[in-house]
Structures are given as C-alpha cells and as structure tokens.
Amino acid sequence: MPRDLVRRAARRLRRAVVGAPPQPVPLPVLGYVVAGGRGAHPASAHVRVVRRTEHLAASGTAEVRQVDPAAFVDGSDQTPYAALLVQRDILPLDGVQPFLAAAASRGIRVVAEVDDDFFTESGRARLARAEYDPDRLASIDALVRGADTVVVSTPELADVVRPVARDVVVVPNALDPEIWTAGPTADDDERLAGEHRVLYMGTLTHAADLELLRDVFADLATADGTPIRLEVIGVTEEGGADWFRRVDVPDGHYPAFSRWLMAHRERWQAGVAPLRDEEFNRAKSDLKFLEYTALGLPAVVSDRPSYAVARAHGAVAVPDDVPAWRDAVRTAVERGRADEHAARWVAEDRTIGRDGDTWRRVLLG
C-alpha cells in the first residue's frame, strides 16, 4: 500500500509539472550611468543613451536601470547586470578604476560611450576652451582604456579611439520618433514679419564654427529682396550681434527642447551646420542634419566627412567659399522644405527602432 501511494503521488506530480504554464524567462538587466536623473539629463545623454535604453525597455528586450556608481562600487547594489553602459565623463577620475574593478570582479561587461574627439591634442585643446578641465578629460581616457567595448557615433571617431580601446563599435546617431514626430504648430506671430529665418543650433563647442557664417549672412536676401536672418540657439554665450539673432528657448531638457522646436518649426525656412576644417570636427556626427530634416527644413552643411553620408541623402554640402554658401542658403530658403528623399531616409534609416540592432547586440549580445 505505501508503494502504491508513492506511485500515485509521483503520477500526480508529473501531471502537475507537465500541465504547468511555462515560467517567464527574466529579462536581462542593462544598467546605464549618465549625468542627471529622472529624465533630466544633458542632451548628449538623451540622444546617445537614455532614449535608446528606454526603447529597449519598451520593446521588452531588457530591463533598464540608471545606476548609482557609488552604490555599485561599495556593493550595496548587487543587481546582476548583463552590462553597464557608461557615458564619457560621468565618472570622476578617481572613481573610474574602482568602478571597472567592481565590474570585473562580478563578471559584468562595461561599455563606454563617447561621441566627440576627447583624445587628439587638438580635440582636447578645443574641449578645454569649452570648460572641460584636465581631470574631466583624463577620466574619459581612463574609462575608454579600461572598458570592454567603446561605442562611438562615426567611423572617423572610431579611427581616433581605436588605438586606445580594446574594441570599438560604431552606432550612428538616430532620432527618437516619440519626440521628433511632427504635430500641431504653435502660433508664432513673428514668422510673418517680413523676413526669412535660418536656424543654427548647437553646443558651445561650436562657437568657432559660427564665425564661418558672418560674411554669409551679411545683407543676405532672396531674389525678391526679402532679408534672410540667421537665428542661433545655443552655440555661443554672446547675447546676439548685428548679423545674427539669439533665440531663447524655454527651460527644459532635450525631449522638451525637441518638442518645442517641432512646435515652432514653421518659424524657419532652412537650417545650417557649419564646421571648420579642424581635426576635432572630422569626428563629428550628422545629428544636425537629422534634426533639421525632422523639422522639415532643408539643411545646408559644410562639406566635411561628418556629412558625407548625409550629402548622399539630401544634405546640401558646401565648400569653404562665402559666395557658394550664400547661394546655397538662398536656394534652400526659397525652397523652404526638406528634400523628400532626405525626410524618407531619416524616418526609415535614422530613427530609433528602425536603424538596426547593433546597439542591442553590443550591449546584450
């Protein structure tokens, strides 16, 4: 009798196991380390890290968490991360090696992300002028040398980074469709004020590039005599000049800024992206072309390696020649809308979720 009871119990257990629903496989956990928190991050963190990781989470590919480096190093954060993505200079110089050592001791891959030339002598000199102190630059160098993989935005930047990194992967910039999709436009009383406007936006590292446009916009007008005025967002700390107008944008981080631009896109008829012929600029990405195109604006850019691919998809690339720039800007303003091929390429090939899975493979295998 006891033996029969055992056999019946075993049969019931087998039936229960066979009939039980499959248990969900836990998602890999991706940790990321960037400046800011709770959605308030620098623009580069949003573009290169935060928006992409949020899309991974939304797609059900991974669970993503922003990591406190101190908690990770002291062991109070024992999350079994599949990988840790660290953006450029977020770790202080004296915190880089402890962070890398803690990751190595737990068998966790560290992926560094950099999107500028922080390594050549000329690049470091330019960044120093934009308030990057020596320790900040040294922390980036230490992270890149110690990371398992480094993700960069352009092939030119990969060539700069490759001599100091173990492994380098190019993931081109892409736009988040959640914040770069056209919607209703805001009322903008100034857009009919008897002038055409051209937009130039960027960080303070582009202050020297702005000077390339001084003679371009001097008394520039369309064929019917309507003045063409340059408007600048960011780029320089100058309050304005007689040859350009500074536009103040409401406070807010990158998603809010991008949505504000989309709402006011009818204010401008074209966008420009000048780049001096300097070593630092050769590693720059074509992000401005993507953003201008998403705004529905034709883009006039410097004929540099940064825009070689964009040139094949509708960007107007101009050499360092003032008359050529003036003609190109005038033509773009008179056209007043982005090239259809450019708009289609940005939407289909340079939008997060439609730009391939290199990012996922680098981080999660």
Termini gap: 54 Å
Q: What's the overall geometry?
A: globular
Give the biggest beta sheet: 6 strands, parallel
Number of helices: 15
Strand content: 5-15%
Order of helices and strands: HEHEHEHEHHEHEEHEEHEHHEHEHHH
The strand order across the widest sheet is: 2-1-3-4-5-6
Rg, Å, rounded: 25 Å
Percent range of helical residues: 25-40%
Regions with little confidence, pLDDT below 50 for 5+ residues? none
> Which structural class do you get from the secondary structure elements?
alpha/beta
**Average pLDDT score:** 88
Extended strand count: 12
Give a written overview of the molecule:
The chain is an alpha/beta fold and 365 residues long. 39% of the residues lie in helices and 15% in strands. The chain is built from 15 helices and 12 strands. The strands form 2 sheets. The chain has a 6-stranded parallel sheet, with helices on both faces. Strand 3, helix 4 (93-105) and strand 4 (109-113) form a beta-alpha-beta unit. The chain is globular. The termini are far apart.
Nutshell version of this structure?
The protein is of the alpha/beta class. The chain is 39% helix and 15% strand. The chain contains 15 helices and twelve strands.
Observed structural traits:
alpha/beta; globular; 6-stranded parallel sheet; single chain; 15% strand; 365 residues
